[in-house]
Design goal:
Number of domains of chain B: 2
Radius of gyration of chain A: 21 Å
Structural class of chain A: mainly alpha
Strand content of chain A: under 5%
Number of strands of chain B: 4
Largest sheet of chain A: none
Shape of chain A: globular
Helix content of chain A: over 70%
Order of helices and strands of chain B: EEEEHHHH
Radius of gyration of chain B: 29 Å
Shape of chain B: elongated
Distance between the termini of chain B: 79 Å
Distance between the termini of chain A: 35 Å
Number of helices of chain B: 4
Order of helices and strands of chain A: HHHHHHHHHHH
Oligomer: heterodimer
Helix content of chain B: 40-55%
Number of helices of chain A: 11
Chain lengths: 266, 108
């Protein structure tokens, strides 16, 4: 088994891939994630403020479930687009059958992550593997195979590859996410202060700094941070899958040769 | 020496050839020519054919039913997650959601 890339090298490679990603990949990602995050924030605010929220809780939860599946499907498309860019001469195309297979795999497998990830986080030790597994499912369950067990088996195999690298990546990403969360929180908190200074408009945030501890504010900060950090995390796990599969297929060598040929031509 | 030792085995189809792999499906030994890699597993030609063969028509309705149940279970699980998340949010007092809870706690 070859030595894996360092965690920082992998993150750097993911950032380069994201910077070179076409607009279609970004549109794909946000077309899926934005409706879900906005609905979740609305759901959160509604449940925490409205006196009659319990009356439509069941319908709201069902709508949110559908949007969660919608988000996971688009994230799978995003992961596929990033992955296909790594393979020279391969273009991504989705057929009706492959979209159906992808929706099936994502719907059947992803909901369990909502329970397993917090559970494994509490137990601590298996968290890294579970976290990688569900990110890998986004890529492997992209509709290329109809067999859900095969998707799970392959995702698990790639998730259990190079555990040291995986855990280092998670640790760095956790610290990075904390910094992003704080940054977003500070920006959102200071916007009302800035408006008050410039235009003299008072708001709840300018009247009491404790308002920054209201749960809707914190959930908005979480939502924005998720939308900013998650594409990077997805790309990192796509790269891990690519390098993991390359151990057998040699696809990384083909990519490097292709790049070398291009640089020699130019 | 174990009788399952690969170096002591012969190919099922070519008795004059040494075996190089054991098929994980049928557990028989085969030479290099009789095996192929499929989804990171080395399988013999007949097992590979069985795996890639179109589904038995009789099993199709059963599989469809199983998939539908799987799908419904997952959607139900999702719905339960968000439903109970809403229930938990409804349980907390308004002062906690509005942040005034911490203000009062700080004053007292």
């Amino acid at each position: 088994m070859p030595r894996p890339k360092g965690a920082l090298d992998l993150i750097e490679e993911a950032i380069v891939e994201l910077r070179n990603a076409p607009a279609s990949a970004w549109i794909t990602y946000y077309a899926g994630s934005l409706p879900f995050v906005l609905s979740l924030l609305y759901f959160w605010a509604d449940m925490s403020r409205s006196a009659f929220a319990y009356r439509h809780l069941a319908e709201a939860a069902f709508g949110l479930s559908l949007l969660y599946v919608w988000m996971k499907c688009w994230q799978s498309v995003f992961a596929s687009l990033i992955y296909k860019r790594l393979l020279p001469g391969v273009t991504s195309h989705f057929t009706t059958a492959s979209v159906f297979r992808m929706a099936l795999a994502q719907t059947v497998l992803q909901p369990y992550s909502l329970f397993l990830l917090p559970l494994t986080f509490l137990v601590f030790l298996p968290f890294g593997w579970t976290y990688a597994l569900y990110h890998n499912i986004s890529l492997i369950g992209n509709g290329e195979t109809a067999d859900i067990r095969a998707v799970l088996r392959k995702s698990w195999k790639l998730a259990s590859l190079w555990p040291g690298q995986n855990h280092r990546v998670i640790l760095i990403l956790w610290l990075f996410s904390m910094v992003v969360f704080l940054n977003v929180g500070i920006v959102i908190f200071f916007i009302p202060q800035l408006i008050q200074t410039l235009f003299g408009v008072e708001s709840v945030f300018t009247m009491s700094p404790f308002q920054a501890l209201n749960t809707t504010f914190l959930s908005v900060v979480w939502g924005v941070s998720y939308l900013l950090v998650n594409p990077l995390i997805k790309t990192i796990y796509v790269l891990r899958c690519f390098h993991g599969e390359s151990v057998h297929t040699g696809a990384d060598l083909a990519t490097e040769l292709d790049q070398l040929a291009l640089s020699l031509d130019s | 020496m174990s009788r399952f030792d690969l170096s002591q085995q012969r190919c099922l189809n070519h008795q004059q050839r040494e075996a190089v792999a054991r098929c994980p499906e049928c557990k028989r030994y085969f030479c290099r020519e009789c095996i192929a890699e499929h989804e990171d597993r080395v399988l013999c030609a007949s097992c590979l054919r069985k795996l890639q063969a179109p589904e038995d028509k009789k099993k199709r309705p059963l599989r469809l039913l199983f998939r539908t149940i799987q799908l419904l279970c997952s959607v139900l699980l999702l719905w339960l997650f968000f439903y109970y998340m809403g229930e938990v949010l409804l349980l907390f007092p308004t002062s906690f959601h509005e942040g005034t809870f911490w203000e009062k706690l700080g004053e007292s």
